[in-house]
Amino acid sequence: MRSMHLLFETPEAAREVAFMLQCEYDGCTMITVPPIHDTLALRTATELTGADFCFAGDHYPLVLSLTTGAISQVSDQQAERINRKAELWQDVVPF
Predict the structure, then answer these.
(1) SS3 category, 30
(2) What is the pLDDT of residue 62?
(3) Could you give the angle at which helices 11-21 and 39-49 cross, rounded to 10 degrees?
């Protein structure tokens, strides 16, 4: 088994989850969870912070509908989360 690297939307979320789980925090948006960890504790910590995360090395395409009606239904908070995720994924995708 190997340690898991998780990338969060914000440094604050990563820091909070790392504190709750007592695991390594890189000072930015990544935490390192030991190979043997409590999955329930991880799930609870991420739910308490309300932050999304992805596993380091995972790359997901961000696809938005191009219709004006669909875009106008996105709230400012959702738009901010989409932008943060896009920036996060852009940082790990090599060009």
Answers:
(1) strand
(2) 43
(3) 140
pLDDT at 93: 47
Distance CA 46, CA 16 (A): 9
Model confidence at 70, in pLDDT bands (50, 70, 90)? Answer: low
Spatial contact of 80 and 5, defined as CB atoms under 8 Å apart: no
- The count of residues in the chain is 95
Residue pair 32/21 in contact (Cβ under 8 Å)? The answer is: no
Nearest in space to 11 (alpha carbons), one of 65, 86, 73, 88? 88
Alpha-carbon distance 64 to 43, whole Å? Answer: 27
List the domain boundaries for the chain.
4-92
* Residue 41 CB partners (closer than 8 Å, separation 6+): 20, 21
